[in-house]
Amino acid sequence: MKIHPYLNFDGQAKEAMTFYKEILGGEFDGDFNYFSEIPGMVHLSEEEKKRVMHVTLKLSEEVKIMASDTLPSLGQKLKLGNHNHISLMPDSKVQGKKFFDGLSKGGTIELPYEKAFWGSYFGSFTDKFGIGWMVNYSLIEGEE
Question: Which one of 62, 85, 93, 116 has the fewest CB atoms closer than 10 angstroms to its CB?
Answer without folding.
Answer: 62
